[in-house]
Design brief:
This protein has 8 helices and 11 strands. By secondary structure, the protein is of the alpha+beta class. Strand 6 and strand 7 (144-154) form a beta hairpin. It starts with 13 loop residues before the first helix and ends in a 17-residue tail after the last strand.
Length: 256
């Protein structure tokens, strides 16, 4: 990093000046995810600031997902989050990633019939205990663990999944090929944390932040096709919503 002094007479806080300097250095020197940044003491010398200022700047950069700090190892440029529009459209992860030139593969953890629980029965419009098909997959994007998804389908639709190529192919594309077309749906995104199993599968450990995406999808006849819940790694994903003026007239946000 260059030796640039912070302007102590500026109205901008010193930690924010330093934050911008570090950002500029990452960009100008084309640093890549995983590249090591100088330690706190070295930054104090280079920028002529206290360790408190350095820690404030690094804390903000870590909060923004620009850097990651590993105890005993140092501060590194973080892998950048990938924007997804899954929360605002009916595309599946396979279609979403393929559209930007990436690759998706899935590890099928479970594909079987089971009785619908209360939440699934309500989403699929069936009685509790009705047989449904459940599909659980660990999803990889560009060979990196990305999300853990569980999909429940009415039995007559889910039966199609048993013949599908789910490791490399798209479930949505397979269903379309058999005359099942998604027409509309409701999706929500909320914050959650991993339990021990989820953290192990996603490779981030227990108690880590994730984005929980829930969705119920209907066909043209307003019959449920699927209900799914997917945990997306909070350190790799952000959701983008495309809005128009008309969106302002509907219930865009709900709290509970």
């Amino acid at each position: 990093m260059p030796s640039i002094r912070i302007d102590r007479l500026s109205a901008d806080p010193m930690y924010d000046q330093l934050r911008r300097q570090i950002l500029a250095t990452i960009t100008d020197e084309r640093l890549s995810p995983g590249d090591l940044l100088p330690g706190e003491l070295r930054m104090c010398e280079q920028y002529g600031v206290s360790r408190t200022v350095v820690r404030q700047a690094l804390g903000q950069l870590e909060h923004d997902g620009i850097i990651t700090r590993v105890k005993g190892k140092g501060t590194f440029v973080a892998p950048q989050k990938t924007a997804e529009t899954l929360a605002s459209g009916l595309a599946g992860l396979h279609e979403e990633v393929a559209a930007r030139g990436g690759t998706v593969r899935s590890e099928v953890l479970r594909l079987e019939r089971e009785p619908a629980g209360e939440r699934v029965a309500a989403a699929l419009g069936c009685d509790i205990g009705t047989t449904v098909v459940v599909l659980e997959r660990l999803r990889f994007v560009d060979d990196e663990r990305w999300s853990l998804s569980t999909t429940w389908m009415p039995e007559h639709i889910g039966a199609l999944a048993f013949d599908a190529e789910l490791e490399e192919g798209s479930l949505y594309a397979h269903l379309r090929a058999h005359g099942v077309h998604a027409a509309r749906g409701v999706r929500s995104v909320e914050a959650s944390v991993t339990d021990a199993r989820e953290g192990q599968l996603l490779g981030i450990g227990p108690g880590k932040p994730v984005l929980l995406l829930r969705s119920t999808v209907l066909d043209d006849a307003d019959q449920p096709i699927e209900h799914f819940e997917a945990l997306h790694r909070g350190d790799r994903t952000r959701f983008e919503f495309r809005l128009s003026y008309d969106d302002a007239h509907g219930p865009a946000f709900r709290t509970r």
